[in-house]
Fold these 2 entries.
Entry 1:
Amino acid sequence: MKRSFIREILEAIDEETISFAGGLPSEKLFPAEDIKIATLKAMENPKIYQYGISNGINELRTQIAARYTKEGFPTTKDNVLITTGSQQAMYILAKYFEDKDITIEEPSYLGAMNIFRLNHLKMEGVKLENDGVNVEAFENSFKNTKLTYLIPDFQNPSATTYSDEKREKIADIIKKYDGILIEDSPYGELFFDKKNVSMSSKLPKNSFHLGSFSKTLVPSLRIGWIRADEELLKSLMIIKESIDLHSCGISQYILTEYLKDEKKYEKHLQDIRDDYEKKANFFSEQLNLIMPEFKHEKPKGGMFLYGTFGDGIDTFALVQECLKKKVVYVPGNQFYIDKIPNGEIRFNYTHSTFEQIEKGIKLIKSCL
Ligand code: PMP
């Protein structure tokens, strides 16, 4: 195994470097004042300092469940397990499915691929098209693995979002083979146009739906969750207990306080969507203006813009040059199982200022 290129890059770069590499939310959108108020309120509750139950505090699980139910996916707190970020949710699931074969999208989330390797899952990649995985290739792989990890909303890295039609087709295949879906959706709320219907809602008995507050509120609280059928969730408890007994109680009580004011949270989500949409549009415009040889689609949500120069360019080699000029991105080959160099790049557009976006793209162009 190798460490994640992204985490290593984040450690290596200095303050001056323009980074399009990490999946960092915009700092100016953290609701710091409201989190402070929620924290002070939460601190008055003596329970905040005590050990808690492994599946998470009831109030927070109930709040999360209510959001699913409101969206038409009936859910109670017994369907929700709180985890230490959705990263831990994936770790728990990978441990549970240790040694199995798993169908994944290619490209896919680097952090998940590393967890799968660590737990000896054998990954089979299926090519992503611009409206989701290729359905035929998916069925060919899934009929053998009967287990899949998908990111259908504004995927990391490719920003791809599944069409309604593909969501139906993929869910039907999972049902046909009575397999399991792990649906990872940390970006589902960051839509510019409309919220998508989760694939898991079509497969309530055969799915694990992963959520997180990292991209919608603050990542440092490290709170995510798994939504699943009650019986399926029970089978994960021994793993969760073995890892950390329970996720941080202080973080959970702070979130519970914050989420009590639903309207405030909704407004905050809308502010993020508005800001990110402007950034995504600007990033795409600047690319077209400064570096038109980089082919891409304008994102419809999430935090990433993905595209390619075509096969003639090795973006892994290019990033070494870019580093010297103090600009960095993630080369696309990092998101593939075999990591063979290619012409693809993932850009994060949420963390940089408009000036940094323009300057950074000009620097990359000069290295090109
Ligand atoms: N899944 C995906 C697709 C991600 O992009 C990330 C974060 N980059 C995670 C899971 C993990 O997020 P967290 O642990 O902060 O919830």
Note: Residues 23, 85-87, 109, 111, 151, 156, 184, 186, 212, 214, 219, 224 surround 4'-deoxy-4'-aminopyridoxal-5'-phosphate (CB under 6 Å).
Entry 2:
Amino acid sequence: MIRIDKTAFITGITGQDGSYLAELLLSKGYTVHALVRRASTSNTSRIDPLLQKIDEQGLPLYLHLGDLSDGEQISNIIFNLKPDEVYNLAAQSHVRVSYDCPAYTGDVTGIGATRILEAIRNCDKEIKYYQASSSEMFGSTRPPQNEMTAFHPRSPYACAKVYAHYLTQNYRESYNLFACSGILFNHESPRRGENFVTRKITRGIASILAGRQRGLVMGNLDAKRDWGYSPEYVQAMWMMLQQDKPDDYVIGTGESHSVREFLEIAFDYVGLDWQKYVTFDQKFFRPAEVDDLIADTRKAEAQLGWKPNVTFQELMKIMIDSDMRAIGMEPIGEGDDILAHIYPDRWWAVD
Ligand code: NDP
Ligand code: GDR
């Protein structure tokens, strides 16, 4: 592989996508700088394997303490580094939580993008910018959704993402910045946060099998999502910044499945009947729901040459196998086989 001698700055490196993106860029030869929040307990578990390699192998990864709410710190970092590419993945990213903390979500998930874009505009307009936009912006608009589909956000989180999305377009048009938005549909992995529905289910199943948990308490099972595999989606982010012109792209699988279907096939994979284990609690329902999301990815396929490989069923198996291993059990193994088959030379660490 040709080594790319570039510098990237990532916000949100400790999250699911940030950790995979850092591994992807480092595997390509990039020097990676990243923003990390100070926490009273460790928040680096997803990147600990990388941190270990900094000392052992001289991995060119540098962490900077800071927060997207602190514009001065963001400006200082960008002025000092003058990176080639900036990937803004940091966010208060939980839709249900955004109803509890709407102003905070607006500040970080929305205005956070302004702070970075302003720093780039004032520092060096050649710096390329990636904005993590979301299918949640489509909200109640009927599927399938593509780059031309109208937005109808249904949560404070989605409203904040719409703001950041339009601001990214505005800085592209007003200041000629190389600013792109990836409108990514739901994507999951063994590194998915534990309070998002897929991981809650796969982790719950492993705990039930291990006798540590009796069942799962859930919310709305009728919602349908277009679920893909995170490592493939961070590749799309990188591809967007390698194009000749900045643009926005929808990234997804083109298939949607309900939360109920995910439960059924996931419990079925381990030989259990989901209905015996699931109860409901109002706290997991949302004041307004997004019913159905299906990505129309024709533009990304045609212009980026991007296509997903991992299917819905395969994703679920990869996640359950990993959660079983994490709890000390022998995995069923189909998920591990799928990964070994599709990605024999994968660039990310084993989950
Ligand atoms: P995660 O929730 O896993 O990660 C979010 C990251 O943002 C974490 O590193 C978190 O740090 C960091 N962060 C949160 N608040 C702040 C703050 N105030 N200052 C600095 N950093 C902060 O998200 P994902 O990896 O799943 O998603 C990445 C991005 O893509 C997010 O912007 C998300 O909204 C968006 N997105 C995600 C999709 C998905 O399906 N995963 C789909 C479409 C868009 P810490 O670890 O300290 O909490
Ligand atoms: P979403 O993901 O809101 O689509 O946002 P999440 O996994 O939280 O919810 C998906 C659907 O499942 C329903 N649901 C539950 N959700 C959670 N979290 N917990 C439950 O117990 C539960 N029961 C049912 C939800 O109501 C919803 O319909 C994710 C985030 O990663 C965003 O940051 C990102 O922008 C979008 O995906 C695309």
Note: The chain is about 40% helix and 15% strand.
